[in-house]
Design a protein that fits this description.
- This protein is an alpha/beta fold and 326 residues long.
- It has two domains: 94 residues, Enolase-like, domain 1 (2-Layer Sandwich), CATH 3.30.390.10; 214 residues, TIM Barrel (Alpha-Beta Barrel).
- Helices cover 37% and strands 19% of the residues.
- It has twelve helices and twelve strands.
- α5 links the parallel β7 and β8.
- α5 packs parallel to α6.
- The structure holds 2-succinylbenzoate and magnesium ion.
- Pathway: Quinol/quinone metabolism; 1,4-dihydroxy-2-naphthoate biosynthesis; 1,4-dihydroxy-2-naphthoate from chorismate: step 4/7; Quinol/quinone metabolism; menaquinone biosynthesis.
- InterPro entries: Enolase-like_C_sf (IPR036849), Enolase_C-like (IPR029065), Mandel_Rmase/mucon_lact_enz_CS (IPR018110), Mandelate_racemase_C (IPR013342), OSB_synthase_MenC1 (IPR010196).
- Belongs to the mandelate racemase/muconate lactonizing enzyme family. MenC type 1 subfamily.
- Pfam families: Enolase_like_N, MR_MLE_C.
- This is o-succinylbenzoate synthase.
């Protein structure tokens, strides 16, 4: 069921939000928000994505705004702190923004950095947690198989829950998974699920132990649930660095997963310096609530993108809508 383009445009707003720490190479997050009969929803593919990829995110946004959310199994979601590739001295200040989180996801393999930078950051995260709590890594495919093997050997002493997307391809994930199996080190797949034309390939190839699933990049809550069920692997629901509106879509996805064994990557509103609501979906005692979010008119105005950027997003929406309608 597709609403009309003018339906969507009648409530659409574009906002530009500063980040409090640089993350995946950006300092500001631009997103489009609009309201459907089920509530507010978010369309926020990253700027460099082409229309083919972005139209999957639009399908997700429309699904969340126009279709009732599926049945839920829980009303709050335990979340991990997300630690960008900052210097070791900055780790404690960033982690203070994630109150009560017992799990930290540390970004590693950042272009331009070394394994020594990763070791220092992970050591600082372990020092912050103490002997309790869990640390997982996310390399965003930044290592080849040999580099991943060396890095995992260097970082394993800090006690790791899993390593997310250590290498870019499914074949490499299968290889590194075999190489570190003797250590009991699980491998999670993220880009191999959300950026693949065949999101189940990684599961069929037995190249991962855990799947990261994201609502917007996978075309919405129902499609993400379907992929998880067909893969038959444990899942971690994670964000795409959305506002609280987009995070609410992720929270409903996490709530609808029948078995949720891992803390979810849905605390990323804490990486934004401002949001679109005065009541943001940030962690309280390590969990976020499962609820819809209504943006405040004052914040939509205060954070409104300039006319050039707003026109760019409207044109993107129109092109993606045409792809979906076809
Ligand atoms: O999973 C988390 O802790 C937060 C989400 C996150 O890391 C992320 C956010 C935006 C884009 C990509 C990623 C990623 O998991 O690679
Ligand atoms: Mg990832």
């Amino acid at each position: 069921m597709l609403p009309t383009l003018s339906d969507i445009l009648s409530t659409a707003r574009v906002v530009s939000l500063p980040l409090s720490s640089r993350f995946r190479g950006i300092d500001t997050r631009e997103v489009m928000l609009f309201e459907g009969p089920e509530g507010w929803t978010e369309f926020s593919p990253f700027l460099e994505y082409d229309d083919q990829e972005a139209c999957v995110w639009l399908a997700a946004a429309i699904d969340f705004g126009w279709t009732p959310a599926p049945a839920i199994f829980r009303s709050s979601i335990r979340v991990n702190a997300t630690l960008p590739a900052v210097a070791a001295e900055e780790v404690a200040a960033v982690l203070d923004r994630f109150p009560g989180c017992r799990t930290i996801k540390v970004k590693v393999a950042e272009p331009g950095q070394t394994i020594a930078d990763d070791v220092a950051r992970v050591a600082a995260a372990r020092k912050y947690l103490g002997p309790e709590g869990r640390i997982r890594l996310d390399a965003n495919g930044g290592w080849n198989v040999d580099e991943a093997e060396h890095a995992i050997h260097a970082l394993a002493p800090y006690d790791l829950e899993y390593v997310e997307q250590p290498c870019p391809t499914v074949d490499e994930l299968a290889d590194i998974r075999t190489r570190v199996k003797y250590m009991g080190m699980p491998i999670a797949a993220d880009e191999s699920v959300r950026k693949s034309s065949d999101p189940l390939e990684v599961a069929r190839a037995r190249a991962a132990d855990v799947l990261v699933i994201k609502a917007q990049p996978l075309g919405g809550i129902r499609r993400a649930l379907d992929i998880a069920a067909q893969a038959g692997l444990p899942v971690v629901v994670s964000s795409a660095l959305e506002t609280s509106v987009g995070i609410s879509m992720g929270a409903y996805l996490a709530a609808a997963v029948p078995e949720l064994a891992y803390d979810c990557g849905l605390a990323t509103v804490s990486l934004l310096a401002s949001d679109v609501t005065e009541d943001p979906l940030v962690p309280v005692a390590g969990s976020i609530e499962v609820r819809r979010v209504v943006p405040s008119a004052a914040l939509l105005d205060a954070r409104a993108a300039d006319p050039v950027r707003t026109a760019w997003w409207i044109a993107r929406l129109e092109r993606c809508y045409a792809l979906l309608a076809a």
